[in-house]
Amino acid sequence: MTLQYINNELTMHGHRLSDIAKKYGTPLFVYDETMIREQCRRFHTALKASGLRYTISYASKAFSSIQLFNLMAEEQMGLDVVSEGELFTALQSKVPENQIHFHGNNKTNREIQYAMESGVEYFVIDSLDEIERLNTLAERPVKAVLRINPGVEAHTHEFIQTGQENSKFGLSVKKGLALEGIKKIQAAEHLEFIGVHFHIGSQIFESTGTIATVDLVIDWLSENHIEIDVLNIGGGFSIKYTEEDISYPIEEGIKSITDALKNACHRNNFTLPEISLEPGRSIVGEAGITLYEVGTVKNIPDVNYYVSIDGGMSDHIRTALYDAQYDLKLVNREEPHDKMMTIAGKLCESGDIIRRDIKLPTSIHTGDYLAVLSTGAYHYSMSSNYNQMLKPAVIFVTEDSIKQVVRRQTLDQLIQNDVLA
Ligand SMILES: *Cc1c(COP(=O)(O)O)cnc(C)c1O
């Protein structure tokens, strides 16, 4: 991340963030566009080095916008979508429809029809009854990948290999549902079975869980004489939210996973499939920050010191939702982080907190700007109009450009669907 203090002001690619905040208003999402491209290129380079056939599709739920999708097209990234809204947005972009994959554990008939008409590359089927619905709705051959539940769940360096059958996603390998699904797809008149998909967790910072799953899946397919053209291993690669976190080591990690795939295929005399990845967070997460303006400061002696900002859970839900941790920086000057405080949002919930118990400069006062780091994934896309808050604008920054890619919502947009009388 190209954030640094220059002349006592926090800058991105040398541009003063306080100037950007003044020009576009706050709350504001600001992305380092160069870093987004770099992350895409790191995945490409790592996969190219493996010599395998591969595709990468960006998981659009992390942050969807037309200009971001256009950037993805420029970086040879496909897209994953899970709803008609995500598909609609994707279709307005330069990403070719035959590089869009349709996911989801409960696709509506309307969504299936829309995706078929749009010419998406393939559907990732998530249940037995979806197979029948897809087959019935298909008017021409449709490619299908089956999402399986391998019974492995990885969240951190620990991965758990049993007891994860209870999931709304995928079909269980151990309970025989995955095999039943494959047979059903193969027998379906309009469906072409091309491969399997798994996604075993998110914010995974090392590769042992994925490697164990690759081994398990290739052994299982081989035992059952199922051939695949595509092995989709999902996303979930970790990012650094705070100093305690580890960013997934893309180069070594992808090498260890692709090596494991080659070994598993060799061991089983199994034809090497194309490998597909679906990173979301790791593409946009660290590249984005949120800028807020400080409002009130409230000292409760011996209890807490609250600094409130002009946004909150409407644009930053992950602290309330998962107790997620974030680092912050004072934007308009650099000072030692010497005072323990809680940064609170302005919405009507006690849980509307950006960060509890963080050391920041004592001098923080009304009118200062704060930057919350690593908010590029699952912030704008999870934003809401709670308390009739307006969704913020989004800005992309490079060394020589500052451009708005999403405008701030307007008050009129808040009531445009209200039926009067
Ligand atoms: C959420 C999701 C991803 C992306 O996860 P990240 O943690 O953002 O990389 C990829 N594939 C599937 C199926 C998902 O549900």
UniProtKB/TrEMBL annotation:
User: Which metal ions or organic cofactors does this protein require, according to UniProt?
Assistant: pyridoxal 5'-phosphate
Domain spans labelled Orn/DAP/Arg decarboxylase 2 C-terminal: 29-376
The UniProt annotation places pyridoxal 5'-phosphate binding at G236, E278, P279, G280, R281, Y378
Q: Name a GO molecular-function annotation.
A: pyridoxal phosphate binding
Q: Which CDD domains match?
A: PLPDE_III_DapDC
Q: Which residues carry this modification: N6-(pyridoxal phosphate)lysine?
A: K61
GO biological process: one example = lysine biosynthetic process via diaminopimelate
Keyword set for this entry? Amino-acid biosynthesis, Decarboxylase, Lyase, Lysine biosynthesis, Pyridoxal phosphate
- The answer to keyword Amino-acid biosynthesis applying to this record is yes
Keyword Lyase on this protein? Answer: yes
Name the enzyme group at the top EC level. lyase
- The EC number(s) attached to this protein equal 4.1.1.20
Orn/DAP/Arg decarboxylase 2 N-terminal domain location, by residue? 35-284
Q: Which reaction does it catalyse?
A: meso-2,6-diaminopimelate + H(+) = L-lysine + CO2
Q: Give the record's subunit note.
A: Homodimer.
PANTHER family for the chain: DIAMINOPIMELATE DECARBOXYLASE (PTHR43727), GROUP IV DECARBOXYLASE (PTHR43727:SF2)
Function (record text): Specifically catalyzes the decarboxylation of meso-diaminopimelate (meso-DAP) to L-lysine.
The UniProt entry's sequence similarity note says:
Belongs to the Orn/Lys/Arg decarboxylase class-II family. LysA subfamily.
Name used for this protein in its record: Diaminopimelate decarboxylase
Organism equals Macrococcus lamae
Q: Which gene encodes it?
A: lysA
